TrEMBL record:
Gene3D superfamilies found in the cross-reference section: Hotdog Thioesterase
Naturally occurring in which organism (per UniProt): Alkalicoccobacillus gibsonii
Entry similarity comment: Belongs to the thioesterase PaaI family.
UniProt domain Thioesterase: residue ranges: 78-152
Listed name of the protein: PaaI family thioesterase
SUPFAM superfamilies hit by this protein: Thioesterase/thiol ester dehydrase-isomerase (SSF54637)
Signal peptide segment: none
Length: 166
C-alpha cells in the first residue's frame, strides 16, 4: 500500500464528493462518524462501521443490534447475508468472551447460519445464548430478528477457548 498523506486523502475526498449523490454523501458521513466514535472504544473497525451496539447482557444471554442502512445492503436492497452472519458471529463470540476468565478469549471454529427471510426495516437484533461451555470449546446459538420481531436468521457457532495474547 502506498504511503498516504493527509493531502492525498483530502484529494480523494474532494474527487469523490464532486460526483457523489446525496445518498453517497449520507453514507460517507455515517462512515466518518462511526470511525470517529471507534477511536474511543476497543472494538473492531467493522463493528464501528456497521454501528454494532450491545443492548443487554444478562442470564448468559447477549443482545447486539445494528441499524439497517444502504452500506449493508446487497444489490437487491436487503441486508447482505454476510452482514447477518457477521452480526450472529459477533454476538455469539462476544457472549463467549464475556463469560470467560480475563486471561482467556475465544475464536470461531464453526459457524452455521440458516436464513429465514430478508433483512429489512430499521434494524436487526441478534440474541445469543450458550448451549455448552467447556474448558476448550463453547457452543452457542443465536436468533436474528428485524424491527418487527420477525425471524431473519438462526445461527449456531462453536468457539475454541484460547489464552489471550500479551
Amino acid at each position: 500500500m502506498e504511503h498516504l498523506t493527509n493531502q492525498s486523502i483530502q484529494t480523494q475526498f474532494e474527487q469523490y464528493l464532486q460526483s457523489a449523490s446525496d445518498q453517497d454523501k449520507e453514507i460517507l458521513s455515517s462512515i466518518l462518524t462511526n470511525l470517529q466514535q471507534k477511536k474511543d472504544t476497543s472494538g473492531s473497525y467493522l463493528s464501528a462501521l456497521i454501528k454494532m451496539e450491545t443492548k443487554s447482557f444478562a442470564n448468559k444471554q447477549l443482545e447486539i443490534t445494528i441499524p439497517i442502512n444502504p452500506i449493508i445492503h446487497n444489490s437487491l436492497d436487503i441486508v447482505h447475508g454476510g452482514i447477518t452472519a457477521t452480526l450472529a458471529d459477533s454476538t455469539m463470540g462476544t457472549l463467549v468472551h464475556r463469560l470467560l476468565p480475563e486471561h482467556q478469549t475465544a475464536v470461531t471454529t464453526n459457524l452455521s447460519v440458516q436464513y429465514i427471510r430478508p433483512g429489512k426495516g430499521s434494524h436487526l437484533s441478534c440474541t445469543a445464548s450458550v448451549t455448552h461451555q467447556g474448558k476448550q470449546l463453547c457452543v452457542t446459538e443465536a436468533r436474528v430478528v428485524d424491527d418487527r420481531g420477525k425471524l431473519v436468521a438462526t445461527a449456531n457457532g462453536t468457539f475454541m477457548v484460547i489464552a489471550k495474547s500479551k
